[in-house]
Amino acid sequence: MIDFRYHIVSLISVFLALAVGIILGAGPLQGAIGDQLTGQVEQLRLERNELRDQLDATNLEAADNKEFIVAAGPQLVDGSLQDRRVAVVDLGEVDGDRYEAVREQLENAGASVVGHVRLGADWTAETQQDVRKTAATEVTNLVPGVDEAGTDEKLAAALATSLTAKQLTAPEARTSEAVLIEQKLADAKLIEVVQPQDVPADVVLLLEPQPKAVPAADTTEGASVDEAKAYAVSIEVLLAQAAQARSEGALVAGSTPVPGDLISTITADGDLAAVLSTVSGIEDAPGQISVPLALAARLGDQVGQYGFEEGATAVIPPAVQLPPVDRTPPGVPESTSGTDATAGSTDTPTEG
User: Fold this and answer.
1) Which interval of the chain is the signal sequence (predicted)?
2) What does the angle CA 176 – CA 182 – CA 187 come to, to the nearest 5 degrees?
3) Three-state secondary structure along the chain?
4) What is the rounded distance in angstroms from the CA atom of residue 176 to the CA atom of residue 161?
5) What pLDDT score does 77 carry?
6) CA-CA distance, 170 to 341, in Å (whole number)?
7) pTM here?
8) How wide is the angle at C-alpha 327 spanned by C-alphas 321 and 330, nearest 5°?
9) What is the distance in angstroms between the CA of the first residue and the CA of the last residue of the chain?
10) CA pair distance 283, 98, nearest whole angstrom
């Protein structure tokens, strides 16, 4: 049993330590501790101000660099796609300002956007396979070379054909099959025609929508989103392949890549990267300027993944000098091109 004297000694020790602390804190240690804390606060304030000044300088330099790139853009792309016709396919809801910025660079390069469609949600929805199968059955006889293909391959080939197929004897005109395919896909709600198309396109630009915030992958909801995304990307890959196969050149362009999106999938797959060109970062001027340059490079048989992400082959596409466009129908002297080109035309499609 602890006796009363032990409690007395303990209380005295506590009060004695408290008294010593008060005396030292108010006396010889007061100045030293105060000076030390004041010095530390002042040092932290100076470091904060220096970092703020560095950040302001960096932001100003970045703004100047961006202004320079924007101003130099028209000169960089000038004539790189002279007289080429571009069909644009939105792979989802692409930001309107972003599309207009890309379109401006295409026009600066001498190209023109002759058609613009947007994929509907059913195009990549796993729950809408029956809808796609029905549509694919309706267009199979309008698309050459797809009798043995799967549903999504048929639809990809059909859309690419509708954008690029031209009459052999009248290259300025779309085939009747191309027009009918577009109509059937639109009726099935698989695509939305944003800009009606009157002439066949030379190249196809696939625009990937900006990424959306998704639940964490380690949750049930996140895992489900990842599976749906992977399913959708696998179908988008088929469309990119069909666009390249059935046109003179195709390009996939989008925002700075995130894991599992279309650009990341192509970049990570050696076989896909050897055939399909990509441009990332189209939310900013460098990416927008790279779009026409990359299309020109693909027309010149140069494939690459252009951007700042890991795995990109180059920051900017190489400069390519393309030959002038010749739309003279086969067997028609060049001097008569554009006058009698549509006379007696047939609707035989050609593949890019």
Assistant:
1) none
2) 125
3) CCCHHHHHHHHHHHHHHHHHHHHHHHCCCHHHHHHHHHHHHHHHHHHHHHHHHHHHHHHHHHHHHHHHHHHHHHHHHCCCCCCCEEEEEECCCCCHHHHHHHHHHHHHCCCEEEEEEEECHHHCCHHHHHHHHHHHHHHHHHCCCCCCCCHHHHHHHHHHHHHHCEECCEEEEECHHHHHHHHHHHHCCCEEEEECCCCCCCEEEEECCCCCCCCCCCCHHHHHHHHHHHHHHHHHHHHHHHHHHCCCEEEEECCCCCCCCHHHHHHHCHHHHCCCEEECCCCCHHHHHHHHHHHHHHHCCCCCEECCCCCCCECCCCCCCCCCCCCCCCCCCHHHCCCCCCCCCCCCCCCC
4) 11
5) 86
6) 5
7) 0.77
8) 125
9) 100
10) 6
Tokens of 64: 């100047």
From residue 297, give the alpha-carbon distance in Å to each of 72, 85, 93, 269, 337: 19, 15, 27, 20, 27
Q: Report the amino acid identity of residue 78.
A: D
| Rounded Cα distance, 253 and 305, in Å | 10
Count of other CB atoms within 10 angstroms of residue 82: 14
Residue 89 pairs in a beta bridge with: 117, 206
Using one digit for the tens of pLDDT, what is the confidence trace for 140-181?
999 999 999 999 999 999 999 999 999 988 999 999 999 999
The pLDDT value recorded for residue 55 is: 83
Dihedral (CA of 46, 52, 55, 56) sign:
negative
What does the pLDDT read at residue 24?
A: 62
Token pair for 147: 């009798």
What is the number of other CB atoms lying within 10 angstroms of the CB of residue 23?
11
**Cα–Cα dist 248/291, whole Å:** 15
Sign of CA dihedral 67, 68, 69, 70: positive
Task: Give the integer Cα–Cα distance in Å for 207 and 93.
Answer: 9
